[in-house]
Amino acid sequence: MTSVKVACDRLGEDATIWGKASDTVEAASRTADGLTLGPARLGYAADARGVVDAYDGLRQKFTALLAGAAAEFDKLSTTLRDVAATYLREDEQNAHALKKLEEHL
């Protein structure tokens, strides 16, 4: 096995890890999005003091941050797979070019 193949296998393994992390964080984002608390749960006194709105604002921000992280993790996974594919393709092209060169020597 060539060193390029080994390196590409490692890139693929890392891509899988980032993909799983993306899935996990995306699930956390969906869960956070559903954690709404209104006046009935927090109390009307809390609502009158702005606690309900503050909680909802924080929940929305946290949900957005998690969704953004999931998207970035997915981009990392895709980029690592693309890089590995490019390395393999270029390695094969170079090996073919070297073989042709050897045939002419």
Summarize this structure briefly.
The protein is mostly helical.
Describe this entry's structure for a reader.
The structure is a single chain. Helices cover 89% and strands 0% of the residues. With 105 residues, it is mainly α. Helix 1 (3-33) packs antiparallel against helix 4 (51-103).
Give the uncertain stretches in residue-range form: none
Order of helices and strands: HHHH
Summed over residues and divided by their number, the pLDDT gives a mean of 95
Q: What is the total tally of β strands?
A: 0
**Percentage of β-strand residues:** under 5%
Overall 3D shape: rod-shaped
- Structural category is mainly alpha
Radius of gyration, taken over Cα atoms and rounded to an integer in Å = 25 Å
Distance between the termini: 26 Å
Question: What structural keywords apply?
Answer:
mainly alpha; 105 residues; 4 helices; 89% helix
Explain the layout of strands and helices.
Layout: H1 3-33, H2 39-42, H3 44-48, H4 51-103
Helix pairs in contact: 1-4
